[in-house]
Amino acid sequence: MSIPELKIGEHTATIPIVQGGMGVGISLSGLASAVAREGAIGVVAAAGIGFLRSDYAKIKHKANLIVLKEQIKKAKELAKGGIIGVNIMVALTDYESLVRGALESEVDIIFSGAGLPLNLPKLKQEFPDSKTALVPIISSPRAAAILCKKWKRFGYLPDGFVLEGPMAGGHLGFSENDLVAPPLIQDLLIETKKILAPFEDEAGRTIPIIVAGGVYTGADIAQMLRLGASGVQMGTRFVATEECDADVKFKQEFIRARKEDIVIIKSPVGLPGRAIKNEFLLSVEKGEKTPFSCPYHCIKTCDPKKAPYCISLALINAQRGRLDKGFAFAGSNAYRVDKIISVKALIDELVAGIIKV
Fold first, then answer.
1. Distance between CA 189 and CA 150 in Å, rounded?
2. What pTM did the predictor assign?
3. CA–CA separation, 253 vs 26, rounded Å?
4. Percentages (nearest 5) of helix, strand, coil residues in the chain
5. Record: fold of 6-245+338-356
6. Does residue 192 contact residue 163 with C-beta atoms inside 8 Å?
7. How far, in Å, CA of 335 to CA of 263, rounded?
């Protein structure tokens, strides 16, 4: 199979792969720029990014904005002309500030999920010369229809969608009941294409769908492309790379993990999530963690009075390799990771796998 380009707005990637935005320091400028240099789309994650500053607890949202702009600038410089995106969760309390910061920084693409980004095109209107593409992250065909209808009020249709299925890592846009007998990503893709067809006809252009969740090999990518996806998003595979911005102990969690260690957890954010089971999560399960005072006020849906731990602190600790005080989010195939390789080697492996099919 030949390798198709992935066009999103005014930006064209030679490799139809988006590196998933992994928050709280897993995908920063180091990983994103390495991916972009190989012709795919690198993504800096905005969630909790201010922790890179020593004064994060004091200036919180200001720190997030400062560091996001710094990381976008650095990623663009290191990418050498490659495409850099940013992932900004709708659930973040400083969501609009971060979106404006990304637009000011002239990032190539904004990916936005963990809620419906209903007003994202309105924010872009504040930057009339912006070439930044807007790509919502959704988990259902219905969400695609809602966003297309709502965005038409601003004279804008999404430049693409990331369709994230139930096998993805991190917070999931599915109920716990849905995860017992999860829908197939193939079925979600086919239905979403049907939903988008009339909007595409009206606009006179294609709205690319980027499939995410459970995509692991080049053969998996080829399968999604044949079903009509324009590309895929992959997070788990990029964690175990030399360029990933997390501590090596975080990466080793993926190598350590067995199939039975990949579990669904109840997150303080109010959504189910997929993670690698460890002693920290076992202690939470046993009720050994206690409520906390909220240091960051990062997520709109988090209730510190009910939460057994601060998810921001847990993820910061994990990023720094302190897995006794945190845990790693991971996709359903994380147990298949057996070594740390370079981004170039990974992209080459995936491309060879696509061509072979």
1. 21
2. 0.95
3. 13
4. 40, 15, 40
5. TIM Barrel (3.20.20)
6. yes
7. 11
For 86-124, what is each residue's pLDDT tens digit?
A: 999 999 989 999 999 999 999 999 999 989 999 999 999
CB-count burial class (<10 Å; 0-12, 13-18, 19+) for 326: buried
Contacts of 226 (CB under 8 A, 6+ apart): 1
Six-digit token pair at 244? 């990933």
What residues have CB less than 8 Å from 292, skipping those under 6 apart? 304, 307, 309, 310, 313
**What is the overall mean pLDDT for the chain?**
94
Residues facing 133 on adjacent strands: 109
For Cα atoms 342, 257, 301, give the angle at the middle one, nearest 5 degrees: 95
CA-based nearest residue to 170, from 113, 221, 218, 117: 113
Q: Can you list the alpha helix ranges (DSSP code H) found in 170-233?
A: 176-180, 185-203, 218-226
Q: Is the pLDDT of residue 295 over 70?
A: no
> To which residue do tokens 């009720």 refer?
287
Say if CB 161 and CB 135 are below 8 A apart: yes
- Angle at 271 (CA atoms; ends 270, 275), nearest 5 degrees: 120
Domain ranges for the chain, please list them: 6-245+338-356, 249-325
Contact 236, 333 (CB under 8 A): yes
pLDDT digits (tens, 9 = 90+) for 35-66: 999 999 999 999 999 999 999 888 889 999 99
d(CA 236, CA 244): 11
Helix (H) or strand (E) holding 233: strand 231-234
